[in-house]
Specification:
248 residues; alpha+beta; 9-stranded antiparallel β-sheet; two-stranded antiparallel sheet; 11 strands; 25% helix; Restriction endonuclease
Length: 248
């Protein structure tokens, strides 16, 4: 085979892999969590009793779920003294958690016992883990992310305390809708909605905007206005979304 043919074949493989990565179709759920801080999913008691069992019921429907990987960003509060003016200030130092999996040991490491001592920022789950996805050149069967909607000093007013993204590949044939409906009722979420979406394709539909791929979906800049500046009850989900739960 000539060099130019080899290069052409290599380019075609890269192009097809990139297309497969971007175009895989998902049931794309958004979960808007209760604004009560005591109900936060990163608090150990809440995670163990209210969240983990439902997510586990979803993960148990796919093969090789032992390949699931987790990333978490959380911080501890430290008092430091400025070298410039010798004044004390509060510093948030990132806690290094190491490699996390879907097991009790990892859950104990990333969840929080006392929210006054630590600040949780974000959780991200890939099944299979991102390194396997990169090797196979295909996005995960299941992706879950949870973001804390409050800032470090808890000064912001929020319409929902946490924001969850749950993406289930259509080809995996996982039945997640009833599970997530039950979870939403259990934790009294503000709302949980679902639509079809491709993994890496930006889209605009109605008042909703998604300029990034599914793994980079955050609550800011996905609606025509700041979601926390709106009355949540006035948020327009239909007809873009199917509502599977709404707080009464």
């Amino acid at each position: 085979m000539k060099l130019i043919d080899k290069l052409s074949d290599f380019y075609d493989k890269l192009t097809n892999a990139d297309s497969d990565w971007k175009n895989r179709t998902y049931d794309f759920y958004l979960l808007f969590g209760n604004e009560d801080e005591s109900k936060s999913p990163w608090l150990k008691s809440n995670w163990d009793s209210n969240f983990k069992p439902y997510f586990e019921a979803i993960l148990n429907q796919i093969e090789n779920n032992n390949e699931t990987g987790i990333r978490v960003n959380k911080y501890k509060t430290e008092k430091r003294v400025s070298q410039k003016d010798n004044k004390e200030f509060i510093y948030h130092s990132e806690i290094k958690l190491g490699r996390l999996k879907w097991n009790d040991k990892s859950h104990d490491k990333w969840t929080i016992e006392n929210e006054n001592e630590e600040y949780f920022q974000s959780f991200e789950l890939w099944s299979p883990i991102w390194t396997v996805c990169e090797k196979r050149q295909t996005p995960p069967e299941i992706f879950i992310s949870i973001s804390n909607e409050r800032n470090f000093d808890n000064s912001s007013e929020v319409q929902f305390g946490y924001f969850g993204v749950i993406a289930i590949a259509k080809s995996s044939n996982v039945d997640a809708k009833s599970i997530l409906s039950d979870l939403s009722k259990k934790v009294n979420a503000k709302a949980t909605v679902v639509k079809l979406r491709r993994w890496g394709i930006p889209e605009k539909e109605g008042k909703w905007f998604f300029i990034n791929g599914i793994q980079d979906t955050f609550s800011n800049s996905i609606y025509e206005k700041d979601l926390h500046a709106l009355n949540f009850d006035e948020l327009e989900f239909e007809p873009v979304w199917e509502i599977i739960h709404r707080q009464k």
